[in-house]
Amino acid sequence: MDAQEPKTPTAWRDITPDAARRLVIAAVEAFAERGYHATTTRDIASRAGMSPAALYIHYKTKEELLYQISRVGHLLSLGLLTEARDGAGPPAARLEAAVRAFVRWHAEHHTTGRVVQYELGALGPEHYAEIVDLRRTTEGVIRSIVTDGVAAGDFDVPDVSGTTLAVLSLCIDVARWFNPDGRRTPDEVGELYAGLVSRMVGARTA
Amino acid sequence: MDAQEPKTPTAWRDITPDAARRLVIAAVEAFAERGYHATTTRDIASRAGMSPAALYIHYKTKEELLYQISRVGHLLSLGLLTEARDGAGPPAARLEAAVRAFVRWHAEHHTTGRVVQYELGALGPEHYAEIVDLRRTTEGVIRSIVTDGVAAGDFDVPDVSGTTLAVLSLCIDVARWFNPDGRRTPDEVGELYAGLVSRMVGARTA
DNA sequence: TGCCGCTCTGAGCAAGCGCTTAGCCCCGCC
DNA sequence: GGCGGGGCTAAGCGCTTGCTCAGAGCGGCA
């Protein structure tokens, strides 16, 4: 377990002050490992190298920590997706690029991904609603690429809505099973999944 | 919410005595709704219509309840899968049957499925090890069908291991997003997914 | 009728939870 | 050189948690 050096994932680079950033990183690790409800504020604080009370100087509640992680995580992955959608090239290439980037992110940041994808039920009602909205947007981005492909005659998709759901679901679940000590690198998983998704939408082999 | 009649899912039919069965069903609902750690023994007991203390007559701990649910759930879905694998017909048909059954089960019993698939981290070490073993077996069943298809020249799968993982992942994640009030019935999702998986493995169109 | 054993309850214990408070340290500014 | 305020800690409050225990109710058997 000593391979886990205390690197700062790029996601949290611009959180200040330093203590606040250490707290989010500690919270991500703890939430991903044990789940939100099984994680104590004492655990988060001690991982960040401070006393339990110090947490409350930077965050009002434990839930607010989860909310920040969830918000930033969703915005980042949504950004990757929109970038791919707005890129150049035919729908097939853009869908592959989107899947590659999305999957790569969920593998690379699989701890954050786990929190983002599987702990949102612990959010308070208004934060939950906000996150659900982001998720709907995310789904919309993939759907639009699929729709483009169908319209262009490049894809063969009988059920656009269902297939979109399945593609998104497949990519999201990477955060659950990905193991950095496993056989595949994030890039390799992204490549594999891009190919699988191409087949799912019946993309014309160029 | 009154559409939720207190039916007895077939999975728990043969648990006796009656109170013990009511407790598992209550626990499945509660765990699926809020997660294992956010569920209190008082909540489970009151859903089952009894006092908190009564739970401990039938189960030693709250974790044992989770273990029973996890064990039975894994065995049931594993049974469906092996049945499909050992059925008649070419690999393509058997893979489709497996996916159809597995997905249908995870949609129909999506509450149980959620607990089975997403709460196993809360199991104690020895129970966890036992469940992980069942999961390896499950993966092996799908892999063997894929391998059969490749050997028969019916599938085009560059990466058997990775594709198997993706297929399993896709099916499992149904438990997370499936909504019984949504547009799709379990049968429809099973059908959709069987088609998508066929494409993923590059099955020869019969 | 008397007794046993199974099921269940009311009351409650020890531990751990999220979070608060009072006060200390220390750095920058006048 | 004094002081104000942000960052931090030790202590602990009020509450909930998983779980226990002594005893009540009751059906079946002798």
UniProtKB/TrEMBL annotation, chains A, B:
Please state every residue range assigned to the domain named HTH tetR-type: 17-77
Q: What is this protein's name?
A: TetR/AcrR family transcriptional regulator
Q: Which organism is it from?
A: Streptantibioticus silvisoli
Keyword presence, DNA-binding: yes
The portions of this protein that span the membrane are: none
Q: Name one Pfam family in it.
A: TetR_C_24
**Residue range(s) of DNA binding per entry:** 40-59
Task: Give the keywords, sorted.
Answer: DNA-binding
List where this protein forms a coiled coil: none
Quick check: keyword Cell cycle in the entry? no
> Which SUPFAM superfamilies does the UniProt record give?
Homeodomain-like (SSF46689), Tetracyclin repressor-like, C-terminal domain (SSF48498)
Q: Which GO terms describe its molecular function?
A: DNA-binding transcription factor activity; transcription cis-regulatory region binding
